[in-house]
Structure formats: C-alpha cells, structure tokens
Description:
This protein is α/β, with parallel strands linked by helices. It has nine helices and 13 strands. It has a single domain (19-291), classed as TIM Barrel (Alpha-Beta Barrel), CATH 3.20.20.
Amino acid sequence: MARWIVFFCLMLGASMTQADERVFYQPLNVDANLTTAQWQKIWQDTAQHGTRTLIVQWTAYGDSDFGGADGWLANSLKLAERQGLQLVLGLAMDPAYYQRIEQLDSAGLKFYWQAQLGRSLAQQYKLRQDWKLKVSGWYLPLELDDLHFLAADRRATLQRQLKDFASRLDAPLHVSAFSAGKLAPQVTGSWLGDLSATGIQVWWQDGAGTRRLAPQVRDGYASALPCSVGIVREAFRQVSAEGQPFRAEPANPDATPAGCHRTAVFSLRYRPWGRVILDNQRTQQGRDVQNH
C-alpha cells in the first residue's frame, strides 16, 4: 500500500510539473465563429488542465480589433476570467512586421519600433478604458530574434526602447524571442538576461515546433539562458514548407525538465482541449478554398 501511495505521489508530481501553467492563445478573426458555449467549455477545460495564466498574443492585428470592447474576443476573455484565469493581454501587431524589419537599416528600425510601441501604448490605454478586464501583464507581440538584432547596437537601442515602454505601463511587460542560430548561445543568454534585468518578463521559444535548429543546438541555447528568462514550449510541428502559408499539426510539447525556468506553452489551438478552435479554423479555410 505504501508503495502505491509513493507511486501515486510521484505520478501526481510529474503531471503537475507538465501542466500548462501558462498558455498562449493567438486570436484569429475566424475564431469569431465559435459560440459562447464553446468558449465556456474551452476555458473550463483550460483551467482544469492546470493553466493559471492565459497570454493573449494580440488584441489588435492590423486594422482588426476583433470587435473591440463589445466583440467576441473581449466577451470570450471575460468568460476566461470567470474560470479564474489571469490575463496577460497582447497589444498591437503589425501584419507586415517581419517584412519591415527585414528591409530597414538600424536607423529605420529604431523609428519603426518607436512607431509600433506608440501604437501598442494607445492599444493598452484603450484596453484599460474600454475592455474592463483584469490585466496581470501586457505582452508585446513584436518578436525578437538574433538575425534582425545580430548587431550589438541594434540590441542596445532595442533595450532602451523597451525599458522606456515598460515604464509607461501599469503592469509587467512580456516579450518573446527565438533563435535563428546567428548569435552564440552565451551571447543570446546574456542579451535576453540583460533585457529581463530591466524588469521585463522575457520568453524564449524553444523552436521544437518549427525545427529550424537541430535538437542539440536548441538544447545549447536553452542551457545558456539565465533563470530569469522563461521558456515557451511549442506544442505543434510545422508541416508547411518555407515560403508557404504556415500550417502545423498538434504535438506534445518538449518534456525536458525546465529546471529554474518559468514555462509557457504555445498554443491553446494545438492542445487537446483547444482542438475545437483548430477544427473551426480548418473548416473555414476549406470553405474559402471551395469558394475560390
């Protein structure tokens, strides 16, 4: 009997370790097709699977604000709140972000970032005034990488801009980064650690879903991260080729122990209890193809 109790406790501890304590949700306009009852079930199941914090990747994407304060996203997030989920709300995303940072020199990048941070600051104010949600943090959806921020002067300028931006917010700022193999792991760890030392919650995407880097290389980057940098476990496997519209299949996130790091999972759409979101998306995409 004692052995069974010990075994049960060990299994319980393992399951708690692997719980999606923080999970990302990436809103798409097609998600508006889901009913209130479906959202209610999604958030109930999310909470029952051990999630405490929901990180919403953005609340404005280009010209879309998902219906605004009375829209489907705001109403869905109110249901999430009622399940006890804490909300980290994403701000404004420019759909052309990756193309723009590819084209700009260092001076142009500085001014572009300043404009995007101003847009996100305005979005934060709008969310506070109109959406009436309890916010535990703000997420900036402009992802960082070691290709476009390879130069030390770019990283230094970015850090000053983010530090100033974070000081204007009324809750902690969250940002995420991924590695393209352009900076050495130790340099990447130092860069992201310096950012987190300013009070920003930095998340590093483990790259298991996109598989741009070999597993041993990814492990090298992860081991070089300071404890203050969180790790995002990707719960998908990309199946689209380079240059094609992004497509992915659900997959179990990396089960490697996180050690001292906070963890989050990307994303709700690919988790078993969020499958209805993915199925709805694919159904709509199929209809769009037929209509063309």
